[in-house]
Each structure stands twice: as structure tokens, then as C-alpha cells.
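Journal club prep — side note

Before the paper discussion, L.F. wants everyone to see what a predicted structure for a comparable chain looks like in C-alpha cell form. Sequence:
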Amino acid sequence: MPPAAAGNLGYTPPDGGWGWAVVLGAFISIGFSYAFPKSLTIYYKEIQEYFSVSYSQIAWVSSVMLAAMYAGGPLSSILVNRYGSRPVVMVGGLMVSAGMMLASFGTSIIHLYLCVGIISGFGLAFNLQPALTIIGKYFHVKRPLANGLAMTGSPVILSTLAPLNQFLYDTYGWRGSFRILSAIVLNCCVAGSLMRPVKMQQNGEEQQKSPSEEEEAEQNTDKLLTKDSQSDKEQGCLQRFFDISLFKHRGFLIYLAGNVVMFFGFFAPVVFLAPYAKDMGIDEYSAAFLLSIFALVDMFVRPATGLLGNTKWIRPRIQYFFSFSVVCNGLCHLLCPLASGYTGLVVYSIFFGVAFGMVCALLFEVLMDLVGAQRFSTAVGLVTIIECGPVLLGPPIAGALVDAFGDYKYMYYACGVIMLVPGIFFFIMHYYNYKKLDEEQRALPPVSMRTCEKGEK
């Protein structure tokens, strides 16, 4: 099967030029979106003692933040479709900054849930989705590489924030640290400013349009507006912003079903890595350094995964590559309790960084490969709103296991099984999906086969 098609964007993506500046902006924006909730775990043990709360209660801070980031996906999609990526990312940076500043005055754990979790979490949603979407507007041939480089922002920023947060806490306490972080995340506004509208080549003339403008969607909307029935108009708006027809898309449903299970065990091992090390008697800086090791490995694995995914051997069957990476995560967590002492945790962090980086580099590329670049914005919005449930519940459930057994190993066993099951599911179902796609393409007339969109799988 050839590489995915451009998805009927109505223009040829430049695959370079200012697109690399856009990748830099996405690198920063995506980096803060994923790294920020993880880096805050450095403060968990101290905040837990300050407010006298349990492991599961403190885990809700990251869970609410990540869940808000995912739940804000559809709203972010609507704003991107209406205004483009640049202003949405800049507003998101301001929201994260405001949330952290308000949290620094918190008097209870509930206050942190509201400020860090909800306000900053929704701000991260406005950083994540526009950055993912605009890459698909600027790149097609080099899209796996561009996505891999952009997703590298998470480990790069995490490897910086982890030791920085420990230093800030020792120097200024958690309240002062939150105020400094409030200023640091304003860099997301700078990242947003780089995301200018793509220049489109159409009929030999260069036009600059918002990357959110989709010709087909506009035409469909205009037709709907000519109808007299108000219900028809409402249905047209729903279809434009959410594209519920995706729930009839075989590849999308496979992706969604596996990811819903996977995300119950995806973030908890990272959230509890530093607390686990501290519980084993390892000092604070060495525990924080485990996150830096994890992030450093992750940092190199993501672009390498993008390069591999862009090869002629991998890209036609990239879904198998993603399935393999999910299985690797599960095996790492199952073997983690066998690691003894700090050296064992370092080895685990290295292997976990490899497996985690592979999943993150491919996570959105495989979705775009399945549904096509044109439908990606609405697809990722639907995926994130559904995934916010397991993202929200995963770490607290893991924390409850630690509270119940007084030992982290059962939490890592559970996460290993939770990751292994969807990995195997992906292998089986994508084999079925590829087989059905081949059958459907062979059944098409020769001309139709050449013009069909293989990117919409």
C-alpha cells in the first residue's frame, strides 16, 4: 500500500520552508502540553504533606489537568476551524499562566484541582490541538518526520523542567515555584506567533488562507444554509465541527477502542516514577533525575521513530509499528518491579523512555494516516473528549492501588497488563483492517484505484 494521500486539502502542502518554523512552534506548544503535568509530580510529595492528603488525592491534580486537556479537544477544534491555530495557542498560553498563578495562592487541594487542573488544563488543550492540526496543513511527504520532531518537545521540555522544578522548590517553595512557572509557560504565546497561515498554491497563484479553512466544509455549510429548516442548519453545524460520520469509519473505531483502554495505564507510570523512587529511599534530586533520564531517551527516540515511520518499508504499514510500541510499553511496566535499587530504576527509565517515545511519536500520525489530514482536526477532537475519561481516572486508580497495598509494584503490574491488551488488539484489528482495505481496492475499477484516497483508511 502506498503512503497516505494528502487528503484532498485543495492545495499542495509546502513540506518545508516556513513549515519548519511551524514545527518549532509546535515543538514548544506540544512540549508544554505533555511535559507540564508530568513535571509537576516533583512537588507532589511536599504538597501531599502540606495538605495532608493521600496518594490518590494528590494524583487527581495531574489527572484533572490531563483530562481537561483532552476534554477541551472539541472546543479547541471549533476555535481552530473558526480562527486558525495562531490565536488559539496564544490564548492557551495565557490560560495556563493564569491557572498556575492562581494556584500559588491555594489553601486546599480542591483549589489546586480547579486552578492547575481545570484552568491550566484547558489552556493546554488550546496549545495541543492547534499545534497538531497545523502540521498536517504544512506537511504531507515529510509529515511523519515533522510530527516526530514536534512531539520531541515533550521530552526536551520535561528533561529541563524536572531538575528545574526541584531547584525552584528548594529555593522558593512550591508557591514561589508555581509563580515562576506561570511566567515560563508564557513561551507558549511565542510559539503560537510562529503558526502563521499556510501559503497555498492553487492554479499557479499563491494565496494565503487560514489553515483552518476547508473548501469542502464551507461548501457543505453554504448548501445547508439555503435550507429553510432550522434543524437542517443545526445538523450541518454539528457535521462541520464534529464529523460524527467518523463513528462509521472502521480505522477510526479501531484506533479509538484501543486507545480508550490504553490510556488507563499510559500516564500513571510516569506520574509515579519520582514518588516511587523517593519511597525506595532515594534522595529527591536522584529521583527527579530519573525523569530526566526518561526524557533524554524519549527525546532521541521520537525523531528517530519519525524517520523510521517515514521510510518506504514502515509507512505503508505504520499501524503495525504503533501496535509494537504499545506492546513494548506493557512489557516494560510488567518487568519494572524486578528492578532493584537505583540502578534498576535507571535501566527501567531507559527502556520505558524508548517505548514511551515510540508511542508518542506515532500517536497522532497513525490517526492522520487512518482518517486523512482534512478530517484530522475533528477526529482528534472526538478522540480527546472520549479519552479524557481514562486519562482522568488512570492515575487516581493507580494511586488507590498504592494506598491499598502499600507497594508500587501492583500498580506497575496493572499498568503493564492494561497496555499489553490494547497492543495485541491493535495487531489483530489492523491486520483485519489492512486486509479489508486491500480487498476493497482490488474491487475498484483501475481509474478509481489510482484516484482513491488511501490516506482515509
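L.F.'s comment for the group: The CA atoms of residues 226 and 233 lie 9 Å apart. Keep this in mind when we get to the figures.
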